[in-house]
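Issue 218. Parser rejects a valid record. Input:
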Amino acid sequence: MSGFGWRIDARGARAVPVAEALACEADFVWVHLNTTAEHAQAWLRDAAKLEPFLIDALTAAETRPRCEKMTAGAFLNLRGRTDEELDSSDVLASIRIWATRGRVISVTRKHLVAMDAVVQEVRDFDVKDPGDLIAAFAAAITEDLDPVVADLGDTLDDCEQKLDMHRVFELRRQVTRVRSEAINYRRFLSPQRIALERLASLPGDWLGDDDRAHLSAAADRAARMAEEVEAIRERASLVHEELTDLRAEQLDQRSLLIAIAAMVFLPLTFLTGLYGMNVEGLWFAKEPWAFDAIVGLCAVIAIGTVGFFMARHWWRG
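Output the parser choked on:
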């Protein structure tokens, strides 16, 4: 089964196999499982001796960020970026955490990008209790998402600067992508902020005052990011409306040019159609100069019609 364990006490932090993580006493033990539900359920039931409802929460297939007080600890679900492939409906992978005094058990199905930063903090002995570990996860996830959200805003800034009638289709694709990603991120960031705030306010002596302060700070960062994503979503909607207006204006101008061309050729078509009839009685039909006269008359009519439209500035709509 894929995973790792850490034992932390006054002497420092030591990495241990999952099978040995709970065998000896330590001030703080962290066990992380990165595996399928079946393998995790077996270990959580047989080795960790967790209750069935906790096992179900830690191995659930569909999860959203939330925090619940359970027995002597708390269950927390967070979402962060992953470098593995996800379903189209999800943009962030989940980490499920069961925390109580002196022990944290976490489960993921996909490798979180923020995991490496958290493990490094544990290795550097910056994490000494469950509150420190959860705060480290919250901070690392938010720090990892910051540049992604910033890139969405920069892409939208570029689209706003390039608003042009001749680049409507290209810009609409970019704006639609930004708006879709912002909606997906907002779907997880808003409940994640609520989950962290609730954890910081939960009763229990296994969370110290410094831990609660760190969790509140992480919740504030998540709230700021959620607000930024919401602003990006609203801006993307406005830019999309402007592009739609530009597209409508482009179609109106093209329709106007087609209408003007039709108006120019309408009298010419009538005149040439009239003299194309095989009937007697057409004026000057038998004169040798009649063809040149008809061509000249058509040219005069066309120039006059175009000049009228230009004088009225109909070419610009």
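Fixed in the parser; the record now loads. The two ends are 70 Å apart (CA to CA).
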